[in-house]
TrEMBL record:
<protein>
    <recommendedName>
        <fullName>N-acetyltransferase domain-containing protein</fullName>
    </recommendedName>
</protein>
<dbReference type="InterPro" id="IPR000182">
    <property type="entry name" value="GNAT_dom"/>
</dbReference>
<dbReference type="InterPro" id="IPR016181">
    <property type="entry name" value="Acyl_CoA_acyltransferase"/>
</dbReference>
<dbReference type="Pfam" id="PF00583">
    <property type="entry name" value="Acetyltransf_1"/>
</dbReference>
<dbReference type="GO" id="GO:0016747">
    <property type="term" value="F:acyltransferase activity, transferring groups other than amino-acyl groups"/>
</dbReference>
<feature type="domain" description="N-acetyltransferase">
    <location>
        <begin position="139"/>
        <end position="287"/>
    </location>
</feature>
Length: 287
């Protein structure tokens, strides 16, 4: 099944297709809403290609962001020769998607042996916000402020090293821009105790009117084991629910994170692959 480039006229049909598969399409949906389907200069702007059935109905979406990440929603799979044709010459930094689809694309692009800094099939969780449980406590959630920036950059550096397996040097280089971007979007929140001391941070890394994707959840070492992460996420989702959001999803980076999210109502629904290469991989056309 061949791919064709998406145009602006395809935006509504792409959104309808992705919305029906939202739990594994949040990056694609968010980028589509922000930038359309034709790419752009922003790192998250995404050039999309479409698969259609014989009758013309959309049945697959493949994207590559300006930052170099391949995003997949290909329920029926794709021919390796087609994938390599579409992505020929691209420098790929990573592949993100439902694990069965992302791993198939990885193999089709002959990237199975490419060294990776992050190579995880993480548990995928979702939650209908009507079923959200907020743990009781005296800590409160507030929006991150410019005065918090230095602390948040330090936390983000630790997060990138622990969770994404960045080197310390890469984390130091990347963290300021990440924090500034989250603060500009108004997506970064801090949990603080009754004395005003920050205990944890949380954010949304994809935001849609009906659904959010949680990310950047971090508690410093000295505050761990006290339930701060789960309360921060729950309080953030409570605010989102009040604003009309109906559903949330996330990936869990380990057993402790899974327990925290299950405690506030999340159900595991599958696995999502986060594959980030050590170096960009150039895609060559099939022989």
């Amino acid at each position: 099944m061949e791919f064709r480039p998406a145009t602006l006229h395809d935006t509504a049909s792409i959104d309808t297709f992705l919305r029906a598969r939202s739990d594994t399409s949040m990056f694609l949906r968010s980028n589509l809403r922000a930038f359309g389907p034709c790419g752009g200069k922003a790192p998250h702007a995404t050039r999309m290609w479409l698969q259609s059935e014989a009758g013309g109905a959309l049945c697959g979406v493949l994207g590559i962001s300006t930052a170099g990440f391949v995003l997949v929603q290909l329920p029926g799979g794709a021919e390796p020769v087609e994938l390599r044709r579409v992505l020929c010459g691209a420098e790929i930094k990573g592949i993100l998607g439902a694990s069965d689809q992302a791993r198939a694309v990885q193999q089709a692009l002959a990237l199975g042996a490419a060294p990776a800094k992050l190579d995880d099939d993480e548990p995928l969780y979702s939650l209908d916000l009507d079923h959200l449980w907020v743990p009781p406590g005296e800590t409160r959630l507030r929006r991150a402020l410019p005065s918090d920036r230095d602390l948040l950059i330090n936390w983000r550096e630790e997060y990138l090293v622990e969770t994404i397996h960045f080197s310390p040097e890469e984390a130091i280089e990347t963290a300021p821009g990440d924090i500034d971007g989250m603060m500009e979007r108004g997506a970064l929140m801090l949990l603080q105790d009754t004395s005003g001391t920050p205990c944890a941070m949380t954010s949304f890394n994809a935001i849609l009117p009906d659904m959010v994707q949680i990310g950047n959840v971090f508690t410093p070492d000295e505050k761990r084991g006290q339930g701060h992460a789960r309360r921060a996420v729950a309080l953030h989702l409570e605010r989102a629910r009040a604003a009309g959001v109906e559903r949330a999803m996330l990936f869990a980076s380990g057993p402790a994170a899974s327990r925290a999210y299950e405690a506030i109502g999340f159900d595991r629904i599958g696995r999502f692959t986060l594959l980030i290469f050590e170096q960009p991989q150039t895609i060559c056309a099939a022989a």
